[in-house]
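Hi support team,

I submitted a single chain yesterday and got back a structure, but I'm not sure I'm reading the token output correctly. Could someone confirm the output below corresponds to the sequence I sent? I've pasted both exactly as they appear in my results page.

Thanks,
R.
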Amino acid sequence: MGNKIAKEIADILKETGELIRKSPEEEAIVLRQNIRKIEKLSEESDNRHLVYLSYFLGLYVDDVWSNFAVDSSYRGEIQDEDVRRVISQIGNELIRIGKCLMTEDYYGCYNGYLDLVYIYLKDVENIKMRL
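Hi R., thanks for writing in. Yes, this is the structure output for that exact sequence:
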């Protein structure tokens, strides 16, 4: 059952990554919806890597979402291109994490988590400096 769940989660990650990479603005809601699907699937697993993945992505996406989609105090100052760039980069990393998950390359997944955080924090820092 664990491999089946891992494959389902990997497929969701790759599909989500491809969608938001191609069309960040139109498909951004899919990111949040599919992370919720992953959270549900991981509840059925005792694989600690899948549980961590689910927990990490849930918190990560909530943070990104609150900074870009909900924070109206800077809505007029944060450019659409900033949001597109961040979401597109998230898509790239989700695809990479999905591929690593398929091969049980958990170290590769971990590097994907690091890159998600690093890329995001760098983009936020650049936006703050510009504002």
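A quick pointer for reading it: The mean pLDDT is 88. Let us know if anything else looks off.

Best,
Support desk
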